[in-house]
Amino acid sequence: MQETPLYTQRETKSLLTLGQAVLILTVLNVILFIISLSLGRYKIDPIIVSKAILGILFPLKSEDKLIATPRGKVVNLNNFVKVFPNAKNLPDASHFRDPNVETILSYKPDLVITTYQTPIKKLEEAGIPVVLLNLESPQLMLKSIQFLGNILGKYEQARQALIYFNEKLNYIKDKTISVNKKATVYIAGANILTTFGGDFYQTYLADLAGALSISKDLKGGKVNVSVEQILLWNPDYIVLASYCADSVDDVLNNPKLKDLKAVKNKNVFRMPSYILSYDLPTPESILGIMWLSDKLYPQIVNFDIEKEARDFYKNVYNFNIPPEDLKAVIGG
């Protein structure tokens, strides 16, 4: 059986510096805990995860280990319950931007899995083992799947997931590598004047789709911009996140944006979503990458997005998506 690598405390912290998946535990327990995992002497069963980690459990077939998870408006709970029926019985684990230690302790988890932005001092002081993951690029998200596959004993499931993702990404790369001029894309977040810097997932998503994110040189994650800046960029395409407050019609009918190439050519689209928006750092984002590449280069990439989505949910999430849901998603 494949063994979990043994990391020292220093090596563990260096992984965070490198932006890779990170295992952080209380100082006194770190060496013993990881050695126990490696030797198969410690079984991780009840876990609590943040919203961003939910999707990673599905390729690993580990959602049954969940005992609680934070609620949030970015998660479509109706669809989450369809994929994982027991979700309706999961209690709220508190918001991970300010974790409620008492609430988390009451569920007696073996492990808490969240993103590296989560403040964990209180959790560490309470002796709660915590895994921190950096998901802010598709490559890091895939490393996180592999990392969790190791510590949860789901090696083969993680391997199969990585094979699937890499096959799709390599197909897009092979098809778009000969494109002389990449399409430029403006990705809007909460509203049309909110976008993403080069250090956020959406920029990498655009790149893997064969596009150039027009805001890639910005820093600071989510960034507010002006109408004048968007006019200066003059993108070929505008993509609205599924949670964007502005609709496609709002953008197309906005007199301040009428001179944009994307508006003139009606190349304004809303990113699909099912459990989470396809622009967010979860396994569903591979569908966002395929969808975007097909929008930009339909004659070159030529995905059957409906089939791809059906196959993804069946093979990766072990879920037969209802035809009416599939139609609603692809029509998004």
Task: Note the main attributes of this structure.
5-stranded mixed sheet, 2 domains, 332 residues, 11 strands, Rossmann fold, 39% helix, 4-stranded parallel sheet, globular, disordered N terminus
Characterization of the model:
The strands form three sheets. A five-stranded mixed β-sheet has the order 1-5-4-2-3. β4 (111-115), α6 (121-125) and β5 form a beta-alpha-beta unit. The protein contains 15 helices and eleven strands. It has helices spanning 9-17, 30-38, 54-57, 77-83, 101-106, 121-125, 138-151, 155-176, 201-208, 227-233, 248-252, 261-264, 285-296, 305-315, 323-330; strands at 22-24, 47-49, 66-68, 111-115, 130-133, 184-188, 194-196, 212-213, 222-224, 237-240, 268-270. The protein folds into two domains: 9-155, Rossmann fold; 178-330, Nitrogenase molybdenum iron protein domain (Rossmann fold, 3-Layer(aba) Sandwich). The longest helix has 22 residues, at 155-176. The radius of gyration is 20 Å and the shape is globular.
Shape: globular
- Beta percentage is 5-15%
Overall pLDDT metric: 84
CATH topology of the largest domain: Rossmann fold
The profile of the biggest β sheet is: 5 strands, mixed
**What CATH architecture of the largest domain do you see?**
3-Layer(aba) Sandwich
User: Number of helix segments?
Assistant: 15
Q: What is the number of beta strands?
A: 11
Q: What string gives the helices and strands in order?
A: HEHEHEHHEHEHHEEHEEHEHHEHHH
SS content category: alpha/beta
Total count of domains:
2
CATH class of the largest domain: Alpha Beta
Taking all Cα atoms into account, the compactness measure Rg is 20 Å
Kindly, what is the distance between the CA atoms of the first and last residues, rounded to a whole number of angstroms?
A: 43 Å
What is the CATH H-level superfamily of the largest domain? Answer: Nitrogenase molybdenum iron protein domain
Strand sequence of the main sheet, in spatial order? 1-5-4-2-3
